[in-house]
Specification:
By secondary structure, chain A is mainly β. Chain A is built from no helices and eleven strands. In chain B, a hairpin with a 7-residue loop joins β9 and β10. The chains are: A mainly beta, B mainly beta.
Chain lengths: 112, 112
């Protein structure tokens, strides 16, 4: 079946370095993608989104890249800070009334 | 705005008991969803609603019922709790045309 998955379960980075979190999706009909951040004991929090007609979108310290050819999504965090330590999820949907499907999540750990 | 409010935050049930997880949002969002989150897994969709009076099943609907009598409320009912329903439950809502969901802070349910 269609699914959204992540390549790595954990990622450890040095404070100040850049982080790259990857996500693979398999539903070619997906037209909208979102990255969520979930801190311990809290609900997921929206970080950044991208539509399928774009290949890059930048926010504050974060950039999302979309490669539709290989069905790959990535989240880049610049100058990673301790407060970035969390679980990150990619999610995808195939239309305005479609369900939002989440990947399994990756834990980002920032070393001081 | 309070956003998405879930109650209770914690609950322990005995096998076979029933209960209702409450979810309310004050953003006039038409779309609401219930997810469960288990260790090592992403968020899995239980039920969702695209408006008052309209509900549909998600990925893991068995053992759960929902109703949507008002735009604001979307309760999730466990008819006969089972240990397999031990999980963290998240309610989320969004407006039409806005793909990113706003999540509540979750209900941690333990079934013994």
């Amino acid at each position: 079946g269609e699914s959204v998955g992540l390549h790595l379960p954990t990622l450890s980075v040095q404070e100040g370095d850049n982080s790259i979190i990857n996500c693979a999706y398999s539903n070619s009909a997906s037209d909208y993608f979102i990255w969520y951040k979930q801190e311990s004991g809290k609900g997921p929090q929206f970080i950044i989104d991208i539509r399928s007609n774009m290949d890059k979108r930048q926010g504050q310290r974060v950039t999302v890249l979309l490669n539709k050819t290989v069905k790959h999504l990535s989240l880049q965090i610049a100058a990673t800070q301790p407060g970035d330590s969390a679980v990150y999820f990619c999610a995808e949907t195939a239309g305005a009334n479609s369900k939002l499907t989440f990947g399994k999540g990756i834990t980002l750990s920032v070393r001081p | 705005n309070a956003g998405v409010t879930q109650t209770p935050k914690f609950q322990v049930l005995k096998t076979g008991q029933s209960m209702t997880l409450q979810c309310a949002q004050d953003m006039n969002h038409e779309y609401m969803s219930w997810y469960r989150q288990d260790p090592g897994m992403g968020l899995r969709l239980i039920h969702y609603s695209v408006g008052a009076g309209i509900t549909d099943q998600g990925e893991v609907p068995n053992g759960y019922n929902v109703s949507r009598s008002t735009t604001e409320d979307f309760p999730l009912r466990l008819l006969s709790a089972a240990p397999s329903q031990t999980s963290v439950y998240f309610c989320a809502s969004r407006a039409p045309g806005v793909y990113g969901y706003t999540f509540g802070s979750g209900t941690r349910l333990t079934v013994v």
